[in-house]
Design goal:
Distance between the termini: 53 Å
Radius of gyration: 20 Å
Number of helices: 13
Strand content: 5-15%
Largest sheet: 2 strands, antiparallel
Structural class: mainly alpha
Strand order of the largest sheet: 1-2
Shape: globular
């Protein structure tokens, strides 16, 4: 029992690290659902493309196992490359896969999303010959850069991931709550038709929301690569499902709920491995989803919908 308790601080650090990535990805789910009331099941595969974009930049800027420029510049270039690629991808997905179906049956966008997911996954499989690509995180952030706190060992990589996620979520919160674009997003989410009458270009707002959510997924992809130190064409499936679970847990469509849901899910997954073998960590995530749907279907921050019989 003492050995089990001693591992709790380390698992909390691991949980916060993973949770910060899930929160970034869950925000994309929630923003799209909040505006279009549809689930973008291709969102996890956008993360996968972002991870490969970051790996591509890293490969270009290293030679013979050593960086050719400052590691800080490489990290910034990896993030910028992933954001640029996934932003364009998000714009294309919205324009060609979802916009033509807008206003129709709700089932059609879901099928389209699944189709996009399969196309992205198979394209990545063909381009990489289904082989995992190593993420040489140790070239950028030395693995011996650690601090010891309350019984946990916190690496510089984990600190960078948590700090970056918190900074981005804070900036995003300010954009949504304090800017004209955020006001247009909220108006479109509440009543797109009325927003259009008030002069808001809702199509542009929807496209920008897809771009913003996809950019977050791209950054999350780079973080996933740095955390696991390798990426493959299947990472989007697992990450996407966990981020969807985080969004549901927090209350899908709720901005702050997505952030809280991601952190809670990361903690549940990491601390849960103390009670069950690590191979069951995905089962723990889905147990959280099932319990949420049974006990609080609207999520931790969501509002119950009331329909009159």
């Amino acid at each position: 029992m003492d050995q089990l308790l001693a591992q709790i601080p380390q698992q909390i650090v691991n949980g916060l690290t993973l949770g910060s990535v899930y929160a970034l990805l869950a925000l994309g789910y929630s923003m799209v659902y909040g505006i279009l009331k549809m689930l973008n099941f291709a969102h996890g595969d956008v993360l996968m493309i972002g991870a490969f974009a970051g790996w591509g930049v890293l490969s270009l800027l290293t030679r013979g196992g050593a960086p050719i420029v400052s590691p800080i510049l490489i990290l910034l270039a990896m993030g910028a490359g992933a954001v640029a690629v996934t932003s364009l991808l998000g714009l294309a997905i919205e324009r060609f896969a979802y916009r033509p179906l807008r206003g129709g049956s709700r089932l059609a966008p879901l099928i389209s999303a699944l189709g996009v997911s399969i196309v992205l996954e198979n394209a990545a499989m063909l381009l990489t010959s289904a082989r995992a690509k190593a993420y040489a995180t140790e070239l950028l952030i030395p693995q011996d850069w650690v601090i010891h706190f309350a019984g946990a060992t916190v690496s510089a990589t984990r600190l960078a991931m948590i700090g970056t996620s918190l900074l981005i979520m804070t900036m995003l919160d300010l954009i949504v709550s304090r800017t004209r674009f955020g006001c247009a997003m909220r108006a479109t989410s509440q009543d797109a038709e009325a927003a259009e009458y008030m002069g808001i270009r809702t199509s542009m707002v929807i496209s920008a929301t897809f771009v913003l959510g996809s950019a977050l997924a791209g950054l999350a992809g780079v973080m996933v690569g740095m955390y696991y130190m390798q990426v493959d064409f299947m990472i989007g499936f697992s990450a996407g499902l966990k981020a969807f679970t985080a969004a549901v847990l927090g209350g899908i469509g709720n901005f702050h709920g997505a952030m809280a849901g991601g952190l809670v899910l990361g903690l549940a997954e990491s601390v849960g491995v103390l009670l069950a073998p690590p191979v069951y960590k995905d089962a723990i995530v889905f147990a959280v989803l099932i319990l949420t749907l049974i006990l609080k279907p609207a999520g931790l921050f969501g509002q119950e919908s009331r329909t009159r019989a």
